[in-house]
Design brief:
Blueprint (H helix, E strand, L loop, with lengths): L1 H7 L5 H18 L1 H4 L4 H22 L3 H34 L2 H10 L5 H15 L5 H16 L3 H19 L7 H8 L5 H4 L3 H16 L20 H21 L4 H22 L22 H6 L3 H20 L1 H8 L1
């Protein structure tokens, strides 16, 4: 408590102002990522490191024991580790389903139905709203966006309206589930809301999507584009991976609700389900050892399934970006800026 009171007074120190300036500069670079082509994780990671250096020096200058900075950063790293492990497991499952052609098969089914543009508008919106609570809203938006572009081709007006609808639907759908968005995940892991309480947001989220969707639908024509002759089949084990992902979500929720254990631990247990199933896929593909040449594999199936390749394909830039943000905000909190802002509000 004494350290917390001391931290309040650090907001007017030179190093406190410098830390605030570093955070603002890092976020400016993040905002201009598309122009600079500098990955968003790099500036926030650097800012996080320097902020904690400045905090440790400031603590020594004002006589706060060095252990306080140590315990504070360990707390922030633990918070990040829970988030990172949770997202890593979820991303690995999503990448595995992608490799098994789950999303491609859904896209193929939609573009080959011969729906009118207005029906495509509503179907992609509904699917974005319903898929985003399970998968993350970014993956959902990219999948549905690919469907719209495939169906509409050069109809730029429809693509623009439909993609806006998808983004709104994916963000709205992600709000009523801990798995739908990074913010809801952090709120749930912190214990600020139970798993069931998120579903109280279902109808507000639905209204937030439906009202803009209804308004935008009047600008969508009933034209029926030429159906595409596209057929994609899911690879071996795809449906079982979907099932294992749902079981993993149940495991994470059970860890949190019934055992008072971090949801990330449940997700990592769920990742082991996929690990063992990937071994079964390897046996099916007639690979006896991990580094054997994939003899006996049907060439049409491409590269053999490897769970660690799916781990490698995780959004590491995003994961490291969250590390930088959490450590930056944690450092500024120790300086007392978060308490100052909350008191002002």
């Amino acid at each position: 408590h004494e350290a917390g009171e001391a931290a309040i007074s650090l907001t007017s120190t030179g190093f406190g102002y410098a830390s605030l300036a570093l955070f603002v500069l890092a976020y400016v670079l993040v905002i201009f990522e598309e122009q600079t082509h500098l990955r968003k994780s790099k500036p926030v990671m650097m800012a996080a490191g320097f902020i904690w250096v400045l905090l440790a020096i400031t603590y020594k200058q004002v006589g706060i024991p060095a252990e306080e900075a140590h315990y504070a950063i360990i707390h922030n790293i633990t918070e990040y580790a829970e988030l990172m492990l949770f997202l890593l497991a979820a991303m690995t499952y999503i990448n595995s389903m992608d490799e098994r052609n789950v999303f491609q098969a859904l896209r193929s089914w939609l573009v080959s139905r011969g729906f009118s543009l207005r029906i495509v508008f509503w179907i992609t919106g509904i699917l974005a709203f319903l898929i985003s609570p399970i998968a993350d809203n970014l993956t959902t938006a990219l999948l549905m966006g690919a469907v719209v572009i495939a169906v509409a081709k050069d109809n730029k007006k429809f693509v623009a309206i439909a993609c806006i609808n998808i983004v709104v639907a994916a963000n709205a759908g992600g709000a009523f589930s801990p798995f739908g968005d990074i913010t809801t995940l952090m709120v749930w892991q912190k214990g600020q809301a139970t798993f069931a309480q998120f579903f109280l947001l279902f109808f507000p989220a639905l209204v937030n999507w439906l009202i803009p969707a209804v308004i935008m639908s009047f600008a969508v024509s009933k034209e029926v584009p030429e159906a595409m002759d596209e057929k994609v089949t899911m690879k071996f084990g795809a449906k079982r991976i979907i099932f294992l992902f749902l079981v993993t979500i149940v495991t994470a929720v059970s860890f949190h609700n019934f055992l008072s254990l971090p949801p990330a631990a449940g997700m990592m247990l769920g990742l082991s389900y996929l690990g063992f199933f990937s071994y079964y896929i390897k046996m099916h593909e007639k690979r006896i050892l991990e580094y054997d040449s994939p003899l006996g594999i049907d060439p049409s199936e491409g590269n053999p399934f490897d769970i660690f390749k799916k781990v490698a394909r995780a959004e590491w830039d995003t994961l490291l970006f969250f590390y930088g943000v959490i450590l930056c905000v944690g450092g500024l909190s120790q300086f007392g800026y978060l308490a100052m802002v909350s008191h002002q509000m």
